[in-house]
Amino acid sequence: MSKFGELIDIEIPVLLDFYTDWNDESVAMHPVLRDVAAALGDKAKVIKIDVDKNKDLAEALRVKGLPTLIIYKKGEMKWRHSGAQDADTIIGVIQDYI
What we know:
- The protein is α+β, with helices and mostly antiparallel strands and 98 residues long.
- It has helices spanning 2-8, 24-40, 55-60, 87-95; strands at 14-19, 45-50, 68-73, 76-82.
- The chain has one domain (2-95): Glutaredoxin.
- Strands 2-1-3-4 form a 4-stranded mixed β-sheet, with helices on one face.
């Protein structure tokens, strides 16, 4: 988990997308998150985390529904949402933390 700490303990907002390839809603979020990453550039980071490959982390963060989106800044959770979201909503939320 120390690697996870390094990922989220930075000055810019970090959006984590907990997903699986077998969940349709998760797969539908892939292009949305690409748009989010492109729109925000280096002002924020978007990281996709495959729940099947990171079970311990998903369990530790109590990820139940997919996709689950979590924003961290300076190591602190700022926002969390389970289920799909549109790009504009996600960008708006992230901009609150830039």
